[in-house]
Specification:
This is Branched-chain amino acid ABC transporter permease. InterPro entries: ABC_transp_permease (IPR001851), BCAA_transport_permease (IPR052157). With 294 residues, this protein is an all-alpha fold. It is built from eleven helices and two strands, in the order ααααββααααααα. The protein has a two-stranded antiparallel ribbon. A hairpin with a 2-residue loop joins β1 and β2. α2 runs antiparallel to α3 and α5 crosses α6. The radius of gyration is 19 Å and the shape is globular. The termini are far apart. The mean pLDDT is 89.
Length: 294
């Protein structure tokens, strides 16, 4: 039973990171109806930048993280301004294809600067495992869970009460109405991409502390996409709940089913769960059902 609780805590920690990264998918989809297939590369770039600041420039973790977030915000704004803004008003598939090309370009730049070898963050969180009753959990998982929960709470307050957050919600609901109220949709798009890059970088730093950093970390984008789809691609609470569901199921499958079946279940399970749920709820757990009248 102790193993179950240990896997549960670890699954909640990993799932919270998935939910944070999925938030980037949701924000971009709500603002532009497009899916950002370069989300995994934003995760990868953020983790490498933070790691480089810590190891090469000897900057303490918190200042390095803040600098990484500033860099990520500028990167997200620049990508929206230079690469994606020309696609405003054209079919959504064009923007989606642009993000696929962007992911290849960003992956090539990462390989050019950092290579493909796995790099490990220095011990940022306490190494001594944390004993919770009879359950022993590495502190990196506990601190990651706490960090993400705090960030998700701050983002919830931001979207609900801040002027910019309300403008983002208005733009996501109806761009024409937002324009009529004097909201700059182009500015909202840029802010959305900046926030998406920020949450991706935070997720990349936390995952890098757990598993190390290499080019395969970019694949997290494909793993997190089912999280966003599961919760409902236009639902922020759905991204959070979907992250917890996928994280817990993935960790439990890795602990119980992989040793029996020889491995591989952990990687496949998120997609199996996604298909089963979408069979009964095509718009996800919290997605908004759209009705077209013809």
């Amino acid at each position: 039973m102790d193993m179950f609780w240990q896997l549960l805590v670890m699954g909640l920690a990993v799932g919270s990171i998935y939910g944070l990264i999925a938030l980037g998918f949701v924000l971009i989809y709500k603002s532009s109806d497009a899916i950002n297939f370069a989300q995994g590369e934003f995760v990868l770039v953020g983790s490498y930048v933070c790691l480089t600041l810590i190891t090469s420039y000897q900057i303490p973790f918190l200042p390095a993280l803040l600098l990484t977030l500033v860099f990520s915000a500028v990167l997200g704004w620049a990508v929206e301004r230079v690469v994606l803004r020309p696609f405003i008003g054209v079919p959504v598939i064009s923007m989606i294809m642009a993000t696929i090309g962007l992911s290849s370009v960003m992956a090539g730049i990462v390989h050019l600067f950092w290579g493909t070898d796995t790099r490990v963050f220095p011990a940022i969180f306490p190494v001594q495992p944390l004993a919770l009753g009879g359950v022993v959990v590495p502190q990196v998982y506990v601190w990651s869970l706490v960090t993400v929960l705090i960030l998700l709470g701050l983002f919830t307050l931001f979207f609900k009460f801040s002027k910019l957050g309300i403008a983002m919600r208005a733009t996501a609901d109806d761009q024409q109405a937002a324009l009529s109220m004097g909201i700059s949709v182009k500015v909202i798009f840029a802010v959305t991409w900046a926030i998406s890059a920020i949450v991706s970088s935070v997720g990349g730093v936390l995952l890098g502390n757990i598993n190390g950093v290499n080019s395969s970390l970019a694949l997290i984008g494909l793993k997190v996409l089912p999280v966003a789809l599961l919760g409902g691609l236009d639902s922020i609470p759905g991204a959070i709940v979907g992250g917890f569901i996928i994280g817990v199921l993935e960790t439990l499958a890795g602990g119980y089913l992989d040793p029996i079946l020889g491995g591989g279940v952990k990687e496949v399970l998120p997609f199996v769960v996604l298909v089963l749920i979408l069979m009964f709820k095509p718009y996800g757990l919290f997605g908004k059902r759209e009705i077209e009248r013809v």
